[in-house]
Amino acid sequence: MSLPEPRLIDPATVPSLRWGILGPGWIADQFASTVRANTTQRIVAVASQTPGRARAFASAHDIPVALSRYDELVERDDVDAVYIANLPSGHHDAAMLAINAGKHVLIEKPLTQVIAQAESIFARARARRVLAMEAMWTRYLPQVDVARQLLDAGAIGAPRLVLADFCQDNRSLERMWRKGDGSPLWDMGIYPIALCQMVFGEPDLLDVRAIVREDGLDAETTSYLGYANGARATFTVSGVVDVPAHALIAGDEGVIEFGQPFFAPSRVGLAGKGFNSPMAYWVDESGIRGHGGLAYQVNAFADYVGRGLLESPLQTHEDSLACLRVASALAERFGLDGS
Ligand SMILES: NC(=O)c1ccc[n+]([C@@H]2O[C@H](COP(=O)([O-])OP(=O)(O)OC[C@H]3O[C@@H](n4cnc5c(N)ncnc54)[C@H](OP(=O)(O)O)[C@@H]3O)[C@@H](O)[C@H]2O)c1
Q: Does 339 have pLDDT greater than 60?
């Protein structure tokens, strides 16, 4: 049994966009490093509302312009696209600034915890004819393209069951425990939710068991999603224990299993029908590891801009909204009110 090769975008064939970054923190640092190493994109400006941070980030990544105001960055004529990398409660306002200035936007996940804000971002972007894309980077990874080809070719028959876990002891990560910005379900759970959405679409029923902290945030959740055709998904998300992040898709004729962690470059395996059938693998040997994998979504973004697309074909606006609706509905079940 051999697995297909991923259909990769050649970074040399996409427009070399001029990027600005808003909110240069941890993920923006990963982004800037892989953009330089693995793409033909250019980062021309950075803005931070925290005194001194833009200057320090600019000098670490050799970025010519450092600013202390987001509006100054989005108004610049030498910026084509803006990477919104601040915390989720700030995504809407930052994205609207950039969109209103006519810039394409790549917005970190989760897009926002308030669904009405996500809807208004997408509506405004469509009206201004700019690309707006949630940075659900996993969807653009080579291993996910291999899995997508396997699903499309019917390699596992009809998909019936997704099992996925994302459990990481994030008790010392301050932003994880800020209402409106964090919550393990919203922050980490959006990955298994997005995987389920990619495979099955939107669920018809959902349920969750949660360990809820005194402040109302989830320490740990186990969620169940059910679909009209009988398919189902289960995922556990914990912010207090470490577990290898596995994910698999089982169907009538076989199973697809991602390497760990399933949301970063690793590998994907395929086994045929039968309990414990031998597995054939496609292994990511690109040398791009961890958050270096953000480069794939950046290349895809530039490709879409070059093609005049207003949304990602791999995660449409409606796909992003569907994921937010699931997170919101699950969170509501244990009393965490987003929108
Ligand atoms: N794709 C991934 O694998 C991945 C991994 C980690 C995080 N993320 C996502 O990326 C986004 C940023 O996460 P991060 O870890 O990079 O965050 P971070 O380093 O803690 O902060 C990023 C920026 O958010 C703003 N910020 C931070 N704390 C704030 C506060 N208390 N009040 C107001 N603004 C604050 C600051 O913007 P200014 O500089 O303008 O002040 C900061 O530079 C989140 O949406 C997160 O879910 C994605």
A: no
What is each CA distance from 101 to 24, 66, 80, 138, 155, in whole angstroms?
20, 19, 10, 28, 45
Cβ < 6 A, ligand 1 pocket: 23-28, 48-50, 53, 85-88, 90, 108-109, 135, 137, 175, 187, 291
- Give the position of tokens 């290349």: 299
pLDDT at 210 exceeding the cut of 90: yes
pLDDT digits (tens, 9 = 90+) for 118-169: 999 999 999 999 999 999 999 999 999 999 999 999 999 999 999 999 999 9
Q: What is the DSSP string of 165-214?
A: EEE---TT-GGGGSTTT--HHHHTTHHHHHHHHHHH-S-SEEEEEEEE-T
Determine the topology of domain 138-333 in CATH.
Dihydrodipicolinate Reductase; domain 2 (3.30.360)
If DSSP codes are grouped into helix, strand and coil, which group holds residue 220? strand
CA of 257 to the centre of ligand 1 (A): 31
Question: 271 φ, ψ to 5°?
Answer: -125, 150
- Catalytically annotated residues: 109
How would DSSP label each residue in 282-323?
EE--SS--GGGGHHHHHHHHHHHHHTT-SS-SSS-HHHHHHH
Domain ranges of the chain: 11-137, 138-333
Q: What is the pTM of this model?
A: 0.98
pLDDT for 257-314, tens place per residue?
999 999 999 999 999 999 999 999 999 999 999 999 999 999 999 999 999 999 999 9
- Residue 192 CA to chain centroid, in angstroms? 10
Longest dimension (CA), the chain: 60
Average pLDDT, the chain: 97
Identify the CATH class of 11-137: alpha beta
